[in-house]
Give the backbone structure.
Amino acid sequence: MGFKVRLASWRVIARLVRSADVVVEVVDIRDPLSTMSRRLERMVRAFDRTLLVVLNKCDLVPRSVAEGWKAYLEGRGYRVMYVSATSRLGTRMLRGWIKAEAPYKPFTVVVVGYPKTGKSSVINALRGRKGASTSPIPGSPGYTRGVQILKVEEGFYMIDTPGIIPVDGPWPEAIIRGKAPEEIPDPVPAAVALIERALKYNPNSVRDAYGIEETDPYRVLELIALKRGWKYKITGEPLIEEAARTVIRDYHTAKLYFYVPPPI
């Protein structure tokens, strides 16, 4: 049985941004531009708050790619740092960076991001101990349930947002991050788009993840279903919807591995 993704309303996000001194936006370094919220950034500017962009999951890309995205976004006026919250890479420096960017003490930081960018993992890494619950798949148990004020150290506090900001990113991010895989009525188009992108940026991604040499996305889904014995009982046709949900889950966990390189 699936669990619903608990997205915060924009009204709640606005109240939290207004009450914070610093806003940390956590994005997925595998595809930063698709996981940055322009609406959030406009809100931060409107309230005249400090915006810090954290490129999370840097352990999933080469160092040169992480540096390239940092340079690209800094060239567009963002304050940027890359980390891997789960591997604790750069998190100690992140704490110092946030303290340096804070306008005064004591200060409060609100950490926000799309589902599965690693928002809660960043909070946990900053605190140095488990405080905010985490889970690898949107909507699964452990999801943030309500507002928490978390003390990082004396004079440094964080607001763990109630749910995650609504996804206003491009296709297919709005689908695969906005709902748990089990909640997506027709997961096939989103999975097809994911497979196409995976093969575009990493031609070996499908072979490495599933042992399948096929490049047609629909055929890939059929072969995944057949390999796992997923068939319709009456017709015996491959159950590609379940294969599609598997592809979406595997993207979240990086089993289906690819990343978007920074613009040249």
The chain has a mean pLDDT of 87.
